[in-house]
Specification:
Layout (H helix, E strand, L loop, with lengths): L33 H42 L2 H20 L2 H5 L3 H23 L2 E4 L11 E7 L9 E6 L1 E4 L2 E4 L1 E6 L10
Parallel strand pairs: 2-6
Antiparallel strand pairs: 1-4, 3-6, 4-5
Helix pairs in contact: 2-4
Length: 197
């Protein structure tokens, strides 16, 4: 059972013609308004700026943290070293308290004691230097308030003004920092010190 077109349905009756489905044409929405595009560009620029600032801040934080860790390694023992300096000073005072004629005496017990104190002092200074603590003796140097502490003035015309004439107590540095300033007497007489070149 076919019709003249050759189309039949199961019941043998001619099939109804089916109209082909045609999709509706796609209509483009109106172009975004210029204001909306400007707003998106502004948001993009702000996001880029925030990202760059965050990256820069993170890099600065990394550098600052590395510097703080380095400083902690170098200067972390400052408090302990300051306390140990008192021991070094006491050892030096003990050696200074022994009169020269007693050092020359043939007493083996006294000589052994003096040698023991000297050895202990050297060992202590070596241990301090191993950890970055260095002793400095500024005798004859130009007075520098950053590393010297003036205790008094020395009226000596043979020494240029502003020169360290006497050292009462040696100073100590840890790395590039002053751990303890040197206690000094500064010359107030004589010619002015020559300017360093």
């Amino acid at each position: 059972m076919t019709d003249s077109d050759g189309k039949t349905d199961k019941s043998g009756e001619p099939a109804a013609e089916v109209e082909p489905v045609v999709s509706k044409p796609y209509v483009m929405p109106d172009d975004p308004e210029d204001d909306a595009l400007d707003a998106l560009n502004k948001q993009l620029a702000e996001a880029k700026d925030r990202t760059l600032r965050t990256l820069a801040e993170m890099e600065n934080l990394r550098k600052r943290t590395a510097r703080e860790v380095s400083d902690a390694r170098t200067y972390g023992i400052s408090g302990f070293a300051r306390d140990v300096l008192e021991i070094a000073d006491n050892l030096q005072r003990a050696l200074d308290a022994v009169p020269a004629d007693a050092r020359a005496a043939p007493d083996p017990g006294l000589k052994a004691l003096i040698e023991g104190v000297e050895l202990t002092e050297r060992s202590l200074h070596n241990a301090l230097e191993k950890h970055g603590v260095k002793k400095f003796d500024p005798a004859g140097e130009k007075f520098d308030p950053n590393v010297h502490q003036a205790m008094y003035e020395v009226p000596d015309p043979s020494i240029p003004v502003g020169t360290v004439a006497q050292v009462i107590q040696a100073g100590y540095m840890i790395g590039e920092r002053v751990l303890r300033p040197a206690l000094v007497g500064v010359a107030k007489g004589g010619a002015k010190a020559a300017a360093p070149e």
